[in-house]
Amino acid sequence: MCQIMMQAGFQPLMLNEDEQIVFSEQARVLPTLTDLIAVAVFAPTLMLIPWLMVHRLFRRTVYMITTQRVLIIEPDGVTAEMALDEIVKFRGTRKSLLIVGDNRRLWVARSHDAWRFETIVDRLIKRA
Questions:
Q1: Which residue in 29, 75, 71 sits closest to 54, CA to CA?
Q2: What DSSP character marks residue 84?
Q3: Which residues contact 40 (CB under 8 A, 6 or more apart)?
């Protein structure tokens, strides 16, 4: 096991043996037009929920690809992960990516370039 220090405020990340970081990006901070419209539509009817939704949507998050898995990391630690050998297919748009596995799904919702993220993961799968 190897311990990697993350940005300030994040828990240290434990890597498996022979695992290396390939790509890492911090999630987008600013909301998209779709996010703003959703908040504007729900705000008049539900006063508290939109603010909780905005807080949840735009928390500090790091998306990381290693040689063995894809990770979603928040300040509390790893919130979701999927091994590369579990990945079956991808679905997504330019800014978001759904990684479909055998038994579960991993949602990379605020990527700067989801197509690039998908390409890197796909190349790692083909290399293994």
A1: 29
A2: G
A3: none
Instruction: Please give the Cα distance from 73 to 79 (Å, whole number).
Output: 6
Whether the full predicted model's pTM is greater than 0.90, yes or no, is no
Q: Give me the mean pLDDT over the 77-85 stretch.
A: 92
| CB neighbour list of residue 92: distance below 8 Å, 6 or more residues apart | 98, 108, 114, 115, 118
Distance of alpha carbon 78 from alpha carbon 8, whole angstroms: 15
- At 52-61, the pLDDT tens digits run 666 666 678 8
Residue 125 three-state SS: helix
Closest CA to 96 of 27, 43, 48: 27
Asked if residues 3 and 13 have their Cβ atoms less than 8 Å apart, the reply is yes
